[in-house]
Amino acid sequence: MTIRQSSNDTAAGAPSAATTLGAAPPTSPDPPTSADPPTSAAAPMVRPRGTGERGLRGWQLGVLAAGTFTLGVDGFVLSGLLPSISKDLSVGVSTAGQLTTIFSITYAVASPVVATLTGRYDRRVLLGGGLILFLLGMVGQALAPSYAVMAVGRAFAAVGAAAFQSNAYIMAGVLAGEERRGRALAAVTAGTSLSTVLGVPFGVLIGQWFGWRVVLWIITGLAAITALCVPRLPAAQVPQTSMRTRLGVLTRPPVLLVLLTTVGLVGAPILLISYLPVVLGMDSDDTSLVLVLLAFGVGSLVGNRLVGRLVDSRGALPVLLLGAGGMTCAFTVLIGTQAWYGAAMVTMFAVGAFQGLSITPQQHRLFVVAPDVSAVALGLNGSAIYAGAAVGAALGGLTVDLSGASTIPAAAALLGAVAFVYSALTAPERRLRGSVTSTDRSEGGAGVVRDQAG
Fold first, then answer.
1. What is the tens place of the pLDDT at every residue in 226-266?
2. Which of the 8 DSSP states describes residue 32?
3. Which of 264, 310, 30, 51 is nearest to 170 (CA)?
4. Is the distance from CB of 165 to CB of 5 less than 8 angstroms?
């Protein structure tokens, strides 16, 4: 699953996992970034020409969303085609499910490495180059005669996805400004949400009619079309950041706490989605599976439509807890509804809706807890998203082998509950807000810092 987000100096993006894309409204000045976290000096991201004071235009956000849509279809659709892929490649279902783990681990590791090596590049080069590498990996998968070749193709595609998706989020998040950042990030995330609503169900349907390899060829074509649009985006650069600096940001307790939350929030739904057909007792050629995936996708779209304004108006942490708690409850309900088609479809709608509320708040929280290195922190969040996907897919495969597919909803509910409790108990922005309040009181209320994290 390619969620979103989610890291060449940015976030990824989920989640898999894509809303009307309007022009970005007036913004506040760009938040600073820094090549050296320990210092107070900040190097601002260069605002590209042609964006004026309104950040990226609607059609430019649309190009970024088209890319996350393509990556989202690739990530989600494999779960619906898992029985066919395992049969064609002569491997077990749990082994085929580890293709998600391979993709996710490669993404998580490649993301900071690519970001470090390409720090001075124009973001358009990374967006376009990432899509090209991604589509080459997809070609390898579509032609794969064996599981090993398929796995190599997944790894190549993951490196390309890391280059594109992270930069898509950094352009949207930094250029939007503080007041509209939630909506800008949600607009790019909308690509992933739309992929679950439209791309995945129709992808599974095409796979049922023409085979899973045809689906991969279609994804390859979408990546090529999006890559052709990337040169029309404005030029943009961010300060180069060394690997040492990136790892230094990772050692900041507030950042690390938020990133660990991301791992749990992503791992829980991926644990379920990666093996959804076998959980529901459906084959890849069962048309009922298409409708269940459609219900999940519609739920994701609803959540994504709400999350931007909720984060901007209510704060990131309350929305995050709502999403995590809601997902956990939906997983618990699925334990009893997985055997009934109609009830399972309604439950999967709820899973999608609450999942749609969980990723954008994480990105927003990082702007609060690490405003001087937000670009680097967002990039690490992209790695955390895919680390969570790797954990979820691996745990799902282990659950299938040890206790059977029917116990996967219970495992997802347990992991979701852990993520919810952890998020509620850690919440580093609460301590930061308390310290700001104390400072304001000691200084007579001067220099009030605005905190939208909740």
1. 888 888 776 666 666 667 777 778 778 888 899 999 999 99
2. E
3. 30
4. yes
Q: How many residues can be counted in the chain?
A: 454
Structure-token pair, residue 192: 């992933």
Distance CA 39, CA 413 (A): 42
Cβ-contact 403, 48 below 8 angstroms: no
pTM to 2 decimal places: 0.70
Distance separating alpha carbons of residues 223 and 210, to the nearest angstrom: 20
What's the mean per-residue pLDDT of the chain?
Answer: 77
Average pLDDT over residues 29-54: 37
Q: Enter the DSSP assignment of 112.
A: H
Instruction: Decide if 195 contacts 16 (C-beta within 8 A).
Output: yes
Q: How many CA atoms lie within 13 A of 217 on its CB side?
A: 9
150, 277 contact by CB (below 8 A):
no
Place of tokens 């644990």: 271
**Three-state helix/strand/coil letters over 295-312:** HHHHHHHHHHHHHHHHHH
- Mean pLDDT over 190-206 rounds to 76
Nearest 5°: phi and psi at 44? -75, 150
Q: Which amino acid is at 230?
A: V
How far apart (Å, rounded) are the C-alpha atoms in residues 2 and 137? 14
User: Which bin fits 245, alpha (ψ -120 to 50), beta or left (φ > 0)?
Assistant: alpha
Strand ranges inside 187-243, DSSP E: none
**Cβ proximity of 453 and 315 under 8 Å:** yes
Rg from Cα positions in the chain: 20
At 354, which amino acid appears?
F
Helix (H) or strand (E) segment spanning residue 351:
helix 341-355
Give the mean model confidence (pLDDT) for residues 3-15.
Answer: 38
The span from the CA of 273 to the CA of 282, in Å, is 13
Per-residue pLDDT, 35: 31
Q: How far apart, in whole angstroms, are the C-alpha atoms of residue 57 and residue 42?
A: 26
Distance (Å, whole) CA 259 – CA 265: 10
Q: What is the mean pLDDT of residues 198-212?
A: 83
Res 446 pLDDT > 70: no
- pLDDT tens sequence across 67-125: 888 888 887 788 778 888 988 999 888 888 889 889 888 988 887 788 777 767 777 78
Task: Report the alpha-carbon angle 390-391-396, nearest 5.
Answer: 100
d(CA 429, CA 185): 20
Amino acid letter, residue 118: T
Residues 233, 195: Cα–Cα separation, whole Å: 22
Query: Dihedral (C-alpha) 275, 281, 284, 288: value to the nearest 10 degrees?
Result: -110
